[in-house]
Amino acid sequence: MTTTPLNSxxxxxxxMMGEIVPWYQPMIDTQTQTxxxxxxLMRWSLDAENVSPVALIGAxxxxxxxxxxxxxxxxxxAADMNDLDTLLPAGLHLSFNVSPSQVAKPGxxxxxxxxxxxxxxxxxxxxxxxxxxxxxxxxxxVVGAFLKLQLAGVEVYLDDFGTGCxxxxxxxxxxxxxxxxxxxxxxxxxTKKSSTSIVAMVAGLAKAQHLGIIAEGVETVRQSxxxxxxxxxxxxxxxFSCAMSQSQLRNYLSPE
Length: 256
Ligand code: C2E
Ligand code: CA
Ligand code: CA
Hints:
With 256 residues, the protein is of the alpha/beta class. It has helices at residues 8-16, 53-62, 66-84, 100-103, 108-117, 140-151, 169-173, 183-187, 193-208, 221-229, 246-253; strands spanning 20-29, 34-44, 92-98, 124-130, 155-161, 178-181, 212-215, 234-235. Strands 1-2-3-4-5-6-7-8 form an 8-stranded mixed barrel, surrounded by 4 helices. Helix 5 runs parallel beside helix 6. The protein starts with 7 loop residues before the first helix and ends with a helix. Bound molecules: ligand C2E and calcium ion (CA) (2 copies).
C-alpha cells in the first residue's frame, strides 16, 4: 500500500488524466448461484493493486474533491454498463459508495439522478451505499435527499451496518431500503459467538423491517452456508470473486 501523501494537485491530475477507474465486485444470489448485482469500487489505475482505496478516498475527502471523484467514476460506470449491456441480467443491483459528507451537498441528488438517466432504466436497480466513517447528520437536507432518490427509484443502503458510525438509530431517522453486513462480522461468524449473534440480530432486524440485506467479505463455504441459514442469501466476497476491472468483468460474464 502506498504511504506517499497525496495533495490536491496529484488528485486533480489523477482525475483529469482518467486514472481513477471503477472496478466491480459481484454480489451473488446463493439460492440460484446467479449474479445478483455489482458494487462499484474505485481504483487508481496506475497502481490498482497497491494504492489503498481507503487512503485515496480520505485524501479526496480532505481536499474537497470527493463529489468530483464520484461523478468521474459514475460517468465511466455508465459507459461500462452500456458497453456490457447485453451480458448483464435485467434487474441488476448496481451499487456505488457515497460518504455521509457527500449526501448533504446540494449537487448530490442531481448528480445521482443524472447518472441514473445515463442507464437504461428498466435494466438496473441503482443503489447508493452510505459508508460509515463519519456520522450521517439527521438534517432536512439529508432526509430530503434520500426521499428524492427513492421517489426516483434509487435505493439507499447503510454500508458496514453496526460498525463505525453506521448505527441502529439510523433506521429510525432515515428512510433506508437495506443494510450491508460488514466483513468484520462475517470474518468470525463461524468461530466467535458474538459475531454470529450480531449477524443473526441484524438479519432478524432486516426481516422485521422488510429491508434488503447483503453480506460482504464472504471467504469460505462455511461462512456462506451459515449466512444462508440465517436468511442472508445475497453475498459478496472473495469466495465468489474479487473486485475486477471492466475487461476482467467482461471475461467473467462471458468466459471463452
Ligand atoms: P466497502 O464499501 O465495505 O467495500 C468492501 C471492501 O472489501 C472492498 O475493499 C473490497 O475489495 C473488499 N473485499 C471484498 N470482498 C472481500 C473478502 O472476501 N475479503 C476481504 N478481506 N476483503 C474483501 P476496497 O475496494 O479496498 O474498498 C475499501 C473501502 O473504500 C470500501 O469499503 C468503501 O468504504 C471505500 N470505497 C471504495 N470505493 C469508493 C467510492 O467510490 N466512494 C467512496 N465514498 N468510498 C469508496
Ligand atoms: Ca460498500
Ligand atoms: Ca465493509
